[in-house]
Design a protein that fits this description.
Layout (H helix, E strand, L loop, with lengths): L2 H18 L3 E4 L2 E2 L4 E2 L7 E5 L2 E9 L6 H9 L4 E8 L3 E8 L2 E5 L1
Parallel strand pairs: 5-6
Antiparallel strand pairs: 1-4, 2-3, 4-5, 6-7, 7-8
């Protein structure tokens, strides 16, 4: 399995979990033959419920630097910003980004 397939598998797992909890999800990254680009170069999926909108980045086996997510959260506080990292044989590590810091939960 190549890294693209592994990443897509992680996104699918995350969307399935969100949808099982009542969220409507949409893939917000664009793909072409040679390039993949995330929404605002940060997010893979948007999830909505009445009165709530989450922007989520999915990663596999390594968590990204949080600085750009903290900056985005500070600039656009109306969105819940989350980074979900899937660790093989361990499961999800979900990080909720809150303007000047990040809070982790599983």
């Amino acid at each position: 399995m190549n890294t693209y397939q592994k990443g897509m598998r992680t996104v699918k797992k995350g969307r399935t979990l969100l949808e099982s909890k009542g969220w409507k999800t949409a893939d917000v990254e664009t793909r072409s033959r040679f390039k993949k680009e995330d929404l605002f170069s940060l997010f893979d999926v948007m999830a909505i419920k009445p009165g709530k909108t989450k922007l989520i980045q999915f990663k596999t086996n390594s968590k990204p630097s949080m600085n750009k997510y903290i900056d985005f959260s500070r600039t656009y506080p109306q969105f819940e910003v989350e980074v979900w990292t899937w660790y093989d044989r361990k499961g999800w590590d979900i990080t909720l980004v809150v303007s000047s810091k990040h809070l982790e939960s599983k």
